Records
---
Amino acid sequence: MTGAAPTCRGCGQPILDPQDAVLLGHEEANSGPGWDIWAHRAHADRVGPDPVALRILARVLLVKALRD
Ligand SMILES: [Zn+2]
């Protein structure tokens, strides 16, 4: 974690205390490297599962289902 404070995905506020930051995952961008998803410890469970991971899992399950 460098530079500006990351923004909490759960409440939308900056996470000023690095000890309070939880890295939830990484979000891909259409161009560029994407960004990490952070949340306050107290808000980490407010945030849903990583949408990119869910999309990939859904595709894998779909292909498997169609193949059988
Ligand atoms: Zn928060």
---
Amino acid sequence: MRTLIKNGTVVTSSNEYVADVLIKDEKIVQIGNNIDGTFDKIVDAKGKYILPGGVDQHVHFSFEFNGAKVRGFESSASAAVGGTTTVIEFVNQVKGKGLVDSIEDYRKANADGIASVDYSFHSVMTDPRPEVFEEIPELAKAGYPTMKLFMAYKGMFFHADDDAILKALMIAKDAGITVMVHAENADAIDVLQKQLVAEGKIEPYSHALSRPPIVEAEATRRAIYLAELAEAPLYVVHVSCKEALDEVSKAFNSGLPIKGETCSHYLVLDESNLAKPNFEGAKYVCSPALRTPEHFDALWNGITRGSLNAVSSDHCGFDWKEQKHMGKDDFRNIPNGAPGLQNRLGVLWTYGVEKGKITRSQLVDIYATTPAKNNGLDYCKGTIEIGYDADIVIYDPNCKSIISNKDSLHGVDYCPYEGMEQIGRVEKVFLRGNMTVDEGKFIGKEGQGKLIKGNPFGLMYKL
Ligand SMILES: [Zn+2]
């Protein structure tokens, strides 16, 4: 099968140029002008951008909060229509099970034959027995070279104390495993939450009051010191505020292999959403909490200066009506997380590129190229180059629309970006050469996604 995409503007993380792209079976085999030959399909992309398929390094299809479970991989077509062709899922270790087995068992039951886009996994350590620390290097051999630790969520999941973080960092580094942290001070949040509830402040807005920027900054700084002590790289997921970003930037600028990501919602949604009446605020309960608008520019600057090297969705598909309402009488019981997998590229294009915050090449870098590098997937994913997987998005910059949940395939009863303007649209998407989105509609098959294993010693080891 040979498909020629003609006349589009190819955007990579370093430049853009008008060219034809030839796909043979699953790979990009030629890029140039006036490519001759016979083709099974020709797509004219004149006036449109040819972007690499997005790599969303932070999604949740398996997360559980107070017994509420998010939508699973059966909703992953929402990634494809949003221009994302590879997702990386966080799998919480099952108590009593190993890190690798927790991923493999989850994968076989819930991703293989179900996912609509390609997928990989991060391990999340939740049961830190001595033999589990010894198992960390096995993650590299299994093709899952990243591991997250929760510093937040006291009494809920295992929240990693300094002892666990330091040991994990020391063991992980020799195996090329990148340790990631959800950096918030669990004890401080617990104290603030109890105080707020005692004062009768039980509404969703209290979620933000109980997790101010300083609890994120403190944990970020502490994790950085521990990484420095262990002489190990560290990756800080979902940096949401200036204070935490300052810690990451300071560490990176002093020469330490430490970087972070932010998420689409922290760039455009502010904490006033949590105060929406009639419990609508619960739709915006995610951790870290949304911040005041002053933080937006700091985060965009963090992206352009490189201390934040990726923008993820932190997609977490809880329904509002049933699941978020578990916290109607106590904000602490509202499942943490919001959907957004489908909106990442549109939000970055509209509020990043169109507003002059980032260039198109920077967009490609933070939504595809560098996430692939961070996770050791850059041998086949994240850029438009000969030999790479033909994961390609054709983006039409001349459309305008209003984001609406009725256009979402995530299977959740709301969209946090509802009513916001979007400029441009994902017109076509190819997943390893197969057209899987056409005219903005999903035309692929459930189960077409395949497991992509990561190589150890990812980008954080090369800084
Ligand atoms: Zn997350």
---
Amino acid sequence: MIKDEIEKLIELQNIDNQIREIREEIASSPQRINSLKKKLDEKKREYDNLKQEHKKLKVQRREKEGELEALEEEVKKLKKALNEVKTNKEYNALLKEIEQHREKISEIEEEIIIMMEKDDEFEKKEKIFMEELEKEKEKFKIEEEKEKKRIEELNQKMKLKEEERKKKVEKIDSRIYQLYEKIRKSKKDGIAICKLEGEPGNESCSGCFVFVPTYIVEKVKKKQEIVQCENCSRILY
Ligand SMILES: [Zn+2]
């Protein structure tokens, strides 16, 4: 009879292990979603940074264009003034000033050309980035959906396992079951019943890996009573 009870406990332990695995998998789901979300957020941040840089460049370009306009206006004024000067000296001084302005103008024009090229580069990069980001978003959505579905399936599986467990428990001697439960709930790994391991004469408990004395091994092998490990109190078989 004890032999049968032991068999039933082994089966129950099996079911409990499966339930435990399912529960752990369900519990780790938010973590999986979060790590996917993190990747997506990172990509978004990179894209925002890129846009920010681009915006800065545009502001700089507008400033340079403003400077250019002001200088061109100045040159116009100086040219007009050329017609009104009275002395050669004044005339030459004005010419020199115009020349300096023109140099500055061509400098700024070159700067603006470089900025325009950079602007193009930004446009291209942004386009690529946006496409990538869209893809990532799509991927995330799909993964999230998949994960939700998986959790539903796991919950379903869990329900079935719990029903299976209930039926199993009904067939076990209630005092033996209570002992099993007491041990199971006290163990981090949820293992309440475990096998003897090792060569005859040198057997140990596979729950705590501690040597089991021969007289206990004998009792386990007789299967006439429930025998517990002296070290971890798990039921031995
Ligand atoms: Zn033990």
